[in-house]
């Protein structure tokens, strides 16, 4: 700048960056003003303000052409992603309650998932539903990734509002060439004779299912895919809710009911403060689906 000032970021606004980008993209101050819906004088003021703030000249200007200086190219490279991120932030915030995000760690509503999506689309067309899988104990709720989460794993529910929507029978997952795969069902105490795949972070199974003097050996896994891969090798088996059997059918994996195991409670959890307006509708629909389909376990 003519006064040799070094610049200061104080006062930098998105409108300054928008004007710079519009001038370069359209090729003139006049066209930039038209695109932005402001006067040409306002475009000039914003550009001059930006150059003063940064302490550098950003454009080479002649009567016919406009081109960025070396400093201008560098600023443009930073300005474009900043403006894009700001646009995404505004879009997400204004969309707000027009979207409902439901998180889950392994499976959403199991065999009810497709029907949940169909009914939601029919009954609540104004609110777009999205199911999100996130490998955390709260299914992405604590991380701010969803509005509600389906929880089956043991979890301290005190920090959250919650509702029990149903229960699911437990199944044994095992390699399809395992001799047990030819049986119709397995007893829980028999599993203690096998190596058991366990996911400590998001799995529903704990060793408390067995007495201390009759527990299986354990191989720890990191997520559903790791768990399935370990079982497919035949070196271990897994205990899981019926929802896993419904949503994760894999070649080389067979599921069989566990005859004497306690069912797994299925909870929906959400933040106590500022819940999504569609929360109670989602809870009611999930409860209805689990109630309608309450029956003895069916072989997958």
Protein traits:
alpha/beta, Arc Repressor Mutant, subunit A, D-Maltodextrin-Binding Protein, domain 2, 5-stranded mixed sheet, 9 helices, elongated
Give an overview of the whole structure:
The protein is of the alpha/beta class and 300 residues long. The protein has nine helices and twelve strands. A hairpin with a 4-residue loop joins strand 1 and strand 2 (66-68). Helix 1 crosses helix 2 (29-36). The chain is elongated. Residues 1-7 have low confidence and may be disordered.
Kindly summarize this structure in a few lines.
The protein has helices at residues 14-26, 29-36, 40-54, 70-95, 113-123, 188-191, 224-232, 242-247, 279-292, and strands at 59-61, 66-68, 99-104, 128-133, 148-151, 161-168, 170-175, 195-199, 217-221, 238-241, 253-257, 264-270.
Large-scale geometry = elongated
Q: What is the fourth-level CATH superfamily of the largest domain? A: Periplasmic binding protein-like II
Largest sheet: 5 strands, mixed
Helix content: 25-40%
Provide the gyration radius in Å: 29 Å
CATH class of the largest domain: Alpha Beta
Content-based structural category: alpha/beta
Count of separate structural domains: 3
Q: At CATH's second level, what is the architecture of the largest domain?
A: 3-Layer(aba) Sandwich
* Count of DSSP H/I helices: 9
Distance between the termini: 74 Å
Instruction: Please list the strands of the largest sheet in the order they lie side by side.
Output: 4-3-5-12-6
Low-confidence stretches: 1-7
- Stated plainly, the CATH topology of the largest domain is called D-Maltodextrin-Binding Protein, domain 2
Please tell me the overall pLDDT: 88
| Extended strand count | 12
Give the topology string: H per helix, E per strand: HHHEEHEHEEEEHEEHEHEEH
Give the amount of beta strand, in percent: 15-25%
């Amino acid at each position: 700048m003519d006064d040799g000032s070094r610049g200061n970021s104080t006062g930098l606004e998105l409108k300054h960056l928008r004007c710079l980008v519009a001038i370069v993209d359209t090729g003139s101050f006049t066209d930039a003003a038209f695109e932005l819906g402001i006067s040409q004088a306002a475009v000039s003021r914003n550009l001059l303000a930006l150059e003063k703030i940064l302490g550098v000249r950003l454009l080479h200007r002649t009567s016919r052409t406009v081109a960025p200086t070396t400093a201008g190219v560098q600023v443009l490279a930073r300005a474009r992603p900043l403006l894009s991120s700001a646009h995404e932030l505004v879009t997400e915030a204004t969309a707000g309650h027009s979207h409902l995000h439901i998180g889950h760690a392994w499976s959403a509503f199991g065999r009810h998932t497709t029907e949940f999506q169909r009914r939601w689309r029919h009954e609540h067309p104004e609110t777009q539903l999205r199911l999100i899988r996130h490998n955390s104990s709260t299914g992405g709720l604590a991380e701010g990734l969803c509005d509600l989460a389906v929880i089956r794993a043991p979890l301290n529910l005190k920090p959250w509002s919650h509702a029990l929507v149903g229960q699911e029978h437990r199944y044994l997952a095992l390699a399809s060439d395992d001799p047990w795969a030819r049986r119709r069902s397995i007893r829980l105490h028999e599993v203690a004779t096998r190596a058991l795949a366990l996911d400590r972070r998001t799995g529903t199974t704990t060793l408390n299912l067995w007495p201390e003097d009759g527990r299986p050996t354990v191989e720890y896994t990191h997520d559903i895919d790791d768990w399935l891969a370990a079982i497919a090798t035949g070196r271990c088996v897994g205990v899981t809710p019926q929802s896993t059997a419904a949503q994760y059918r894999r070649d080389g994996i067979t599921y069989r009911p566990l005859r004497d195991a306690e069912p797994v409670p299925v909870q929906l959890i959400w933040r106590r403060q500022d819940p999504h307006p569609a929360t109670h509708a989602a809870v009611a629909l999930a409860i209805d689906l689990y109630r309608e389909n309450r029956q003895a376990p069916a072989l997958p």
